[in-house]
Structure formats: C-alpha cells, structure tokens
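A brief tutorial aside. Many learners find it easier to grasp structure tokens once they have seen a single protein encoded end to end. The record that follows does exactly this for BTB domain-containing protein. Read the sequence first, then the structure, and try to relate runs of similar tokens to stretches of the chain.
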Amino acid sequence: MATPEGSRSPSVELVSYIRTAPAPFNRPGDFIIRTAQDTRYHVTLAILSFASSYFRDLPDIERNEDNEVVLAVPESDAVVETLLRLIYPMPDPVFCDLDDLTDAYVAAKKYKLDSATQSLQKMLIRFVESDPLRVYALARRFDLDEEANIAARRACLSATQAWPQCEEFNHISAAQYHDLLQFHKRRGQAAAHLVKIKPLCEPCWVCGKKWSKPWKKCAARLLVEAPSSERMFTPDLLGELALDPSPEWLPYAAQGLLC
C-alpha cells in the first residue's frame, strides 16, 4: 500500500549521526573540525595556528549548543586526516592513489599549511615511474618546475601515440602540454642523432660494419618515438632485425653472426 506523498515509512527513515575520528583525534580538544561526512576531529587550535596562518587568523567562531567550537569544512575524512597527520608529530600518511595526494595538496594550499604542502610535494615524485604524465600535469598545475622536468624525462620512455588520456591535463594550458610534446620531440631527435655518429662501435672481425647499418636505422626510429627507450639494446630487437629481408643484413643474421 502506497504511503501519502510527503510521508515515509519508519522502516526506511534515515537517521543523521555524527561520527568521531580515530585516535588521536577522538580525544577532547579546544577545537573541532567537522568534515563533509560529519566526522568530528578533535584538535588543539594552538597546533593548527602554529602550522598555518589560516587558523592563526581565524575569526571568532560561534560555539554550538554543547559549548564546542566547530569548524565545518567541505573536505572529506581522508583529506582532513591526511593534513592532520602531516601537522601532528606522528607517522606520515602513505598514499596508494595519486588522486588522494592531489586532493590533500589542494587542501594544504587552501589552508596555507606550508610544511604539509612541502611534504606532499616530495611524495608526488614517488608516482613519477608509474604515472609520469599525471605527475607532469599536476606539477605544472601547481607550478612545481623541478617535479615537472623529472616527469617529462620519464614520459620520454614511451611514444606519444601510446600516452593515455589523463584527466589532469584538463587543469593545465595547451601551451604547457605543447611544451611536453616539444621536449619529447627534441630529445628524440638528439638521441637519434647520437646513434648516427661514427664510429658507433669497433668493426667486428667477422662481419665488419654491415650489421650496424640496419641496427642504426632501427634504433634511430625507436629513439625518435621514445627518446629514453632502452629497447635498442635488448635481444628482441636483434630478433626483429634477423627477420629483416634487406640483402646486407640477412646473410649475417642467418649465420647467427650478431656483433
């Protein structure tokens, strides 16, 4: 049987409640931070004031019915706890996801937590091996030149055609993305030029220089595509060249005379 419009069955009535943060932020303090999930973090305002001018210059906040000073913030539990762990004398948080670090960094800048911002900046570079493009975009977004340069070099390990689409690129300018493409192109051209410098290696007493010509050609192509790639030094490239039908390479490949 349907209930009248505007009424709800008691069996599905939602009850609002306030959650308490984990230790040590569940102990009584003189200041409470309430997150978007209505979790209360009990903190000491003096510690926050020492860490940030935002809290030091905070205007008087009215007390609630329980005579508590409560600051409601739009950030999530994860972000607030991350920042507090960077402020309080306790182990730093460990990030497994770059999105979590990004959210924390944005909040740290918002609340002028300089020390926390610097700590998060150092943690950002840990993701450069797994997500160089995302790290580059974040570094450019936050004006972190050193981190952006490191990420750009790491991005040269793969061809631009293989780069995934990253949401972080929506927060940087077209000029900054173009800079990354040009950096990749310049490094590729420079690396390919090095391959062509003679003598690349000493002639082999068995097959002379003939094997190196197709290798140089293939290596130059690979380096233009991915300037920091090491594939030209791997056995699979020699296997690829062994299948090359060019007349000057095939006889030596068939004999297994790979220099």
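Self-check: The first strand starts at residue 19 and ends at 20. If you spotted this yourself, you are ready for the next section.
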